[in-house]
Every structure is written in structure tokens, then in C-alpha cells.
Amino acid sequence: MTAKEAFLLEMYELDIIKFGRFTLKSGIESPFYIDLRGLASNPTLLKTLSQHLLELLPDGDAQLICGVPYAALPIATVMSITSGIPLVIKRKENKGYGTQKMVEGVYEAGQGCLLVEDVVTSGKSLLETIDELERAGIVIQAILVVIDREQGGKKWLRAKGYNIHALFGITEAVAVFNRYGKLDKAAAESVLRFVRHSHATSAQAEKRPCLADRTRTAHHPVMKKLVETALEKETNLICAADLTTADAVFALVGQVGDHICALKLHADIVEDFSLEWMQELRALAAQKKFLLFADRKLADIGHTAGLQFSGGVHQIATWAELITAHVVAGAGSIQAIKSQATDRQTAVVPILQMSTVDTLTDSDYLKKALNVIHQHGDSIVAIVAQGAAIPPRFLKFTPGVHSAAQGDGSGQGYHSSRHAILNHGADFIIVGRGIYRSENPKSAAISYQKKGWEALKEV
Ligand code: 5FU
User: Fold this and answer.
1) Are residues 322 and 341 in the same domain?
2) Pick from 203, 230, 260: which residue ends a domain?
3) Residue 72: is its pLDDT beyond 90?
4) Are 313 and 296 in contact, with CB atoms under 8 Å apart?
5) What is the phi/psi pair of residue 326, to 5°?
6) For a substitution probing ligand 1, which of 412, 416, 429, 436 has the most ligand atoms within 8 Å of its CB?
7) Can 396 be counted among the known catalytic residues?
């Protein structure tokens, strides 16, 4: 075990890094929580940490050292004592009288400074401190961070030209905790998913239009219908009815129909599927007011996708108002749907980013897929994604939502509805087993409906 690993494990034992479900100040739900303030009361650990941080920059010739208040203040103080580099203190707020200086201590303009921070997330709070120091004429020579939450802040600051180093990234920390038996596989995966999908990338997140605005701006009749349905029924819940008999789907609809805005189906898993049954389901959808959504995930060449959409046993084009398609083959699937849905009765929902823990939809794929999506935007109303940023003209549908589980053991990864909406920017949540496998699907649907709608109001 390395000294760094031993230090990490000590932090874990002292609850400085915790795992579970935590609501952050921003309202975002995080599977881990880091609070280094407790370190101030542990002189031995504080000394070890200071040494590790100073070693990040062996050739540093900084003239000043400063900690971002408050958590990094004691760390910077010990680093100053250990290294002999003079400390300056950044005030959290202006005194409102006297010199109104924001940086206290003895320093001169032009001096180089090591800035110390406990955790970097979006990088915004670090930037505030940087601004204050730079306004006082201090040059930021390097930024030393104890833990990088890997949510974009470090990259963002580096892109702005700052020399930023972190002692640990959360991915590395999780690997160490996992290796030494402190964290089970499911919890480790949940943290890694959070990191991978998180879109708390600094201040760049685009403000998304609210549902009420979309009734005016909707560029497709199906989008208008979906949004109006959601607003009227006060629900952004799409139920995934992954049941294998026609009767079971009917029974579920009887329980949840009043609380959902769309019913998502995999028609090919319904053993006794028939077009007559589908007619009955359509009548029920009209009566209970929800849209029918075929999660067919078309992915083949355009010609085949066209046949899969309009023909075969399921004749999806005759009943689905929404249909999913992958863009892995290019725009073929989207074009096939578009050319056959001549009355714009069916809208496309491309799969951009999957909810599985080992999805291949990485950032490179996202960029290329978004290019295809942009080019065919008129037939697209929503995009299936997790934390990836999507163009604001489209709705975001987010599956992988469950109020109790973190995963299903077969690759599916879950978040709470609150996390999906507030952290990932979902407009609509897709819930399957969280509803139909619960003891009481009706009350489960009501609970997802309420939580989803409340979270949407907070956006
Ligand atoms: F595109 C996706 C995805 O990335 N993840 C998904 O889970 C689609 N899904 C579907 O949402 C999946 O096929 C299920 O029908 C549903 C989620 O079901 P669960 O029971 O809530 O896990």
C-alpha cells in the first residue's frame, strides 16, 4: 500500500469521504460526499496531506500560498509552515469598512501564489477566489486540489490556462476503496456513472426551456401533444411496460394510466401481440390521455429500418406516436421514419447516451451522434440521454430511474428521479421495474409522478 493510498483510507475511516445518497447544496443528488473540514481537527493527517500536496510541485518556487476559505485554510496554513512559503488569507466576505481588502497578509503585486482547494467540482468557487487574488495583483502559479470530483471543473480551469493539479481524482479514490474492500461493486459503479454522466460542467450548461414554453415553440405536432398532456396531467412520467402478455400490459395501464404521459412498449416481447389488441390499447390511451411510444431502437440501414417501422407483425407506424432509433448506422433510421410518417404522426426519439454502466456511447460518439441529430431535427422531438448536454430544442428522456435500486445486476444503472431531472437535465423520466415490479404499481406511479413533477418545477 502506498502512502497516498494509506492516507485515502484514513480519510475514509474518518468519514471525510462518504458514499450513499447525498443532496448537495445545489439540490443535486450525489452518490458520494466529501467534506474536508474535519481534517482541521486532526493535526497528524493535516500534516501528511500538506506534505502530499507540496510534493505535487517539487520544483515550485512560489512566493505565496493561499487556501480557499474555509476548508482549505488550515491545509494552506500547514503547507506554509512546512515549506516556509508565506501565507496570505482570502476573505470570504468584504468587511465593509476599513481598507476593504479581500486578501490579507504581506504580499506584493506580481508575486506568484500556490492556491489550495479541498474539492473541485464545477470550478466556479475556485474561479471566484482566483478573481479576488488576481485583482490584488497576485499571479496564480499553480492550483493544488485535494480531490477532483471529475465533473468538469479541473478541465475547465486548465482550458482557461491555469496550472491545476489534484492529489486524487474520484475515480482513483473509488478504485482504492474498492481494492481495499471499503466499497462494494454496485456503489463503486454508481459513483463512476455519476462522474461519467454528470453535466455539472462549470457554467456552460445551457438553460433549457420549461414545458409551458414548449407548447408555443414545439416544432412537431407530437411534441406539442406530449407537452400539453404532461402539463394537463401534471406528469413527466413515461412508464416502461416491459411485460410479456397483452393482459399484463392492460392491467398495468388500468393502474398507472392516469399518472403517465406516455406508455413505452417493446412490442416484440409481448407474446400474444396482435393488431386488434393494439387497437384496444390505442382506445385506452386516448381515453386516459397518454401517448404510445415504441422503444424499437431501429439501428439498421435505412431500407431495413423502414420495413421494421411500417411492416412486419407489429406495424409500428400504425400506432406509435414516438419511436426510438439509434444513429450508429448514420441517419438512415431517422430518414426512413421521416419518409413514412408523412402526416408527422410519429416522431423520432434518437438514442444518444444509454443508461447502462458499460455503455459505448462515450463523448466521441456523442459528438458525432449529435451531428446526425442536428441535421434531421425537424422529425425529432426528444433524445434519450443521461447527463449529456443536448440542444435545447429537443426534450430529454432519461431512463435508468429507480427510487430504491442502484442497478439491476445486468448492466442497468439507476438514479433517483430527482437526480435525473436536476442533475442530468431530464424533462421526462422513464420508469419500468420501479413501477410494475412494485407491490402497488398505482401508488408507485403516483410517487414517481409527484417527485418528477416537483423536481421539474425546481429547474
Ligand atoms: F435507451 C434506453 C436506455 O439507455 N436505458 C433503458 O433502460 C432505454 N432503456 C429502456 O428503458 C429499457 O429497454 C427499459 O424498457 C426501460 C427501463 O426499464 P427499468 O425497468 O426502469 O430498468
Assistant:
1) yes
2) 203
3) yes
4) no
5) -85, 155
6) 412
7) no
